Structures are given as structure tokens and as C-alpha cells.
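Quick check before the chapter quiz. The format below is the same one you will see on the exam, so make sure you can read both the input and the output lines.
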Amino acid sequence: MAEFKDAYAITSAHEGGYVNDPLDRGGETYRGIARVHHPDWSGWQRIDAQRRKAGFPRSLSADRALQNSVRRFYKKAYWDRFDGDRIPDQAVANELYDTGVNMGVRRAVRFLQSSLNLLNRNQRDYQDLIVDGLFGSKTLATLEKLLKKDRGSDALLKMMNIQQGARYVEIMASDASQERFARGWIKRA
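Here is the expected output.
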């Protein structure tokens, strides 16, 4: 079964530290947690208290309580929402988690569900799923069937990444200011 610590380590490398970029739709963020989307996250109190001290924002990485708060946040807000501990393939769990962090869990699960549907050989291997972005027992059972039939997750991961990349293209095509994030997004897809 997949482990949160492995997925967290990979995604954390993309999320960086403290950023307050006016062109980033997330606005002020710490390790990828956007204040505009998560204003009640307990870490903002610690960050606000340290803002007035010398060494800010570099000092934040040494704050163990803040780092623990970040890990707890990510596990609850992302990993647990798709039941990551039950995923039988670490690479699939890593992809769901990273895409969920970057684009939202429902979108990540929709990418998984639609990819599973596209890879079922016109429903000969298993029935199509409803693509609703909700990870439940049917999605898990279908994933297990694909992994057994394909003897791995390579095709599934590529199909999910194709959808992720297409979404990035849509974002940039509709708002040219987002092109500045293209290289970072390409690394994730």
C-alpha cells in the first residue's frame, strides 16, 4: 500500500517556501498552502508572528511546529480525501496526491477515473466509472483490476499526465500571465 511520506517528499520539492507573488492566483503561499484558499490554516498565525522578526522568511523552515502543521494539513486536505493509504501502487498515489495539491483532489480523481475508462478496452476489462471526482470503493476496485491486467501503472500514469498537461495548456491559453509557470507545471506533468 502507498505511504504518505513518500508522496509528500516528492510534492514538497515543487512547493517551495514562502511566496507572495502578485501574478500567482494563489497569492500569498507557504509551501504551496495559499492563504486565499485556506485562511484558517493554523500555520498562518505562526507565519504572521515571524513576519516581524529578522530573517523572515528564511526563518520559517527552522520552525518545527510550522513544518509539522504543513504535513498535517497536506495529509488531511489531500491524501486522506482520496484514501491514499489504500492505493495499491505508490506511483499512482504519488500522482493523485501531487495533482490534487496542484489542481484539486476532485480534478485529480477525475483524471484517474477518465483514464481508467479510456484504458478498459471498450469495457471488456471492466465497466466504465462515473467520472465524478469522488474516490470510492468502485474507483479503487477498478484501479486494482487495471493494475492486475496491465501488470503495472505505466499506461495509467501517462494517461493521467496527458490530461494534466492539457489542463495546464488550457489555463495558459485563457490567461497569458500564467505562462510564467509553464516550466514548473511541465515538471509536474
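If your answer matched, good. The first strand starts at residue 18 and ends at 20.
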